[in-house]
Amino acid sequence: MAALSFTLAHTDTHSKARAGIIQTDHGAIETPIFMPVGTVGSVKAVTQQQLQEEVRAQIILGNTYHLYLRPGTQVLEAAGGLHAFNGWHKPILTDSGGYQVFSLAANRKIKEEGVVFQSHIDGSRHLFSPENVMDIQRSIGADIIMAFDECPPYPSEYAYAKKSMALTHRWLDRCFARLAETPDKYGYTQNLFPIVQGSTFPDLRKQSCEYIASKEAAGNAIGGLSVGEPIDMMYEFAALCAENLPANKPRYLMGVGTPWDLLECISLGIDMFDCVMPTRNGRNGMIFTTEGVLNIKNKKWATDFSVIDAGMPCATSNFYSKAYLRHLFVAGEILGLQIASIQNLSFYLWLVGQARQHIIAGDYASWKTGMTDKIKQRL
Questions:
Q1: Binding positions for substrate
Q2: Which residues form the active site (predicted)?
Q3: With bands split at pLDDT 50, 70 and 90, how would you rate the model's confidence at 108?
Q4: I need a labelling partner for 12 at 20 to 30 A (CA). Which of 32, 69, 105, 314 fits?
Q5: Which contiguous run of DSSP H or E holds residue 260?
Q6: Do residues 4 and 219 lie in contact, with contact meaning Cβ atoms separated by under 8 Å?
Q7: Could you tell me the residue ranges of all domains in the chain?
Q8: Which of the residues 12, 261, 274, 304 is marked catalytic?
Q9: Which residues contact 104 (CB under 8 A, 6 or more apart)?
Q10: Is CATH 3.20.20.105 what the domain over 5-282 is classified as, yes or no?
Q11: How many CB atoms sit inside 10 A of residue 113's CB?
């Protein structure tokens, strides 16, 4: 089967925003795109049918660390890979688990070979190396797989960030070597994305971009941002990386962010995003809408019988009222979490779809300003 390809269709004349198409063996992805996070092979509280028909997701994420621990590669291989296991037959991307090893796992020890860590589930000890992380992602069977990297914390000292970046680059070489030694398991092409690191040091970020670009991978990711640094700094380094990564390959900013973060980073030349925010915040009562952000638990919605979001094409957004959704949250009903998750994910996908239309129309920069002001309002 064919390797991933990226066609750049339009670039906004007043910003760096781009509209393109990523082609994978499981279908096309229109960019800019937001990818719902399905950490353990499931987007929380949302079925695959709802993801396709209401959210209109084009690609979802899985996570190597979590899927390796549960259900394990033996189960995934017996099923025929994650696509067959969870019934999602569009593109899938897997994060390598590097971030989870550094954020969730206990008693981790970083060495040249890889990272020894304890499972957050049962305390069992494991080793993640570039080689076995590639093997695990082969077993999962995602269309886009991520290189194993070290994500340094914010803030980091310059010396540590430089050492960490060099280790990430050496691990990347081993990832490519391992993939060259092992065939795709399920008859379609898996595409490796390297990850730019370098913390918040411009010279290191530029060096990392240059090293990653030299690999001529199918696409490139920007890691180590949205880890606690100020928002303006995140924008600064996203822009720096976008400027120094190849224009003919998709650029993926990992773990970002709010709806207005997406709009700003699209204007910097970023093509792909993922974040747990729409589902996590939705489960806590924060609802993103075309008119602004609302806290559905607030008593002001108790007798508001207007639909959740009339500006959305999503059926769920136009069926349930704000008052009913508030009632579900106050009563502790699971349906409330599902409705909120569908609304927020649908909104994110609607937003990047609108961004794409305005990039193609040539008025993205002016549209972004008005849309940002509107959706940031607290209702």
A1: 95-99, 149, 197, 224
A2: 95 (proton acceptor), 274 (nucleophile)
A3: confident
A4: 314
A5: helix 259-267
A6: yes
A7: 5-282, 284-375
A8: 274
A9: 65, 120
A10: yes
A11: 14
